[in-house]
């Protein structure tokens, strides 16, 4: 056909977060759902076989040989998608500006399926690692003023335009921040991927980001390194290395964070 199914699953520092964090979130999310928890110091790895299935699918039906992943970058994957070398590219709605040249009519968004029961009702992986915080040690006056300002940002016309708008949306005439905010006043986005995500999640169950429960960056790096090793030599033995990094590494890093 002249193209591959998937873009390169680059495991250099500009790209590996897509797989050691975002893709790894899926087996974590489903384990939490099954066990009725929202965090743990001892991940069991219940869905790591599913993680292996989706990783195998990515790396064995891609634009490059799996042995090349350690040197493949985020820019490589973006270019492969934009130039029609692949059909699927795992990334987020924030990537819209980098892929918009293919045309809105040529863009679609689909959930990441890993073979879990009930995933036909699964929506898009959705969340944030960033939150607004108010310093409890500030004066009561400053705390209230901060809360009032935050409320103004997401309820007033001027504030919402600044938060969600694009060209000329700021009171100064400069471009708005273009954010999608989880409040009723949110504006329809010019980012087609944002709108597609909203459409899908309207009648599906979004997959929660569990990133904040991952024990450390060191844990992520260990998983990423093991995934790269496995990709170059796909055997049960090298996959055991992924399981060890995921499960034992989690327990080790969780304990270290509490030491």
TrEMBL record:
Q: Which Pfam families does the UniProt entry name for this protein?
A: SBP_bac_8
State the InterPro entries in the record. Answer: SBP (IPR006059)
Q: What is this protein called?
A: ABC transporter substrate-binding protein
Q: Name the species this protein comes from.
A: Candidatus Olsenella stercoravium
What are the leading ranks of the lineage?
Bacteria, Bacillati, Actinomycetota, Coriobacteriia, Coriobacteriales
């Amino acid at each position: 056909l002249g193209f591959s199914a998937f873009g390169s699953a680059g495991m250099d520092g500009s790209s590996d977060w897509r797989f050691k964090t975002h893709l790894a979130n899926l087996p974590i999310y489903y384990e939490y759902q099954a066990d009725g928890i929202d965090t743990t110091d001892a991940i069991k790895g219940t869905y790591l076989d599913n993680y292996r299935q989706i990783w195998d699918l990515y790396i064995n039906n891609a634009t490059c040989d799996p042995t090349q992943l350690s040197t493949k970058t985020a820019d490589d994957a973006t270019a492969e998608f934009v130039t029609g070398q692949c059909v699927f590219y795992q990334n987020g709605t924030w990537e819209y500006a980098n892929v918009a040249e293919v045309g809105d009519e040529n863009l679609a968004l689909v959930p990441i399926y890993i073979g879990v029961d009930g995933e036909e009702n699964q929506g898009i992986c959705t969340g944030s690692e960033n939150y607004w915080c108010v310093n409890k040690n500030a004066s009561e006056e400053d705390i209230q003023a901060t809360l009032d300002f935050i409320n103004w940002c997401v309820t007033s016309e001027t504030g919402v335009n600044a938060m969600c708008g694009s060209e000329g949306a700021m009171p100064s005439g400069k471009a708005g921040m273009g954010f999608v905010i989880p409040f009723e006043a949110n504006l329809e986005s010019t980012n087609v991927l944002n709108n597609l995500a909203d459409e899908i999640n309207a009648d599906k169950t979004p997959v929660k980001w569990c990133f904040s429960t991952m024990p450390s960056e060191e844990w992520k790096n260990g998983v990423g390194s093991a995934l790269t090793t496995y990709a170059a030599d796909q055997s049960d033995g090298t996959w055991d290395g992924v399981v060890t990094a995921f499960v034992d590494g989690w327990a080790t890093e969780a304990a270290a964070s509490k030491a």
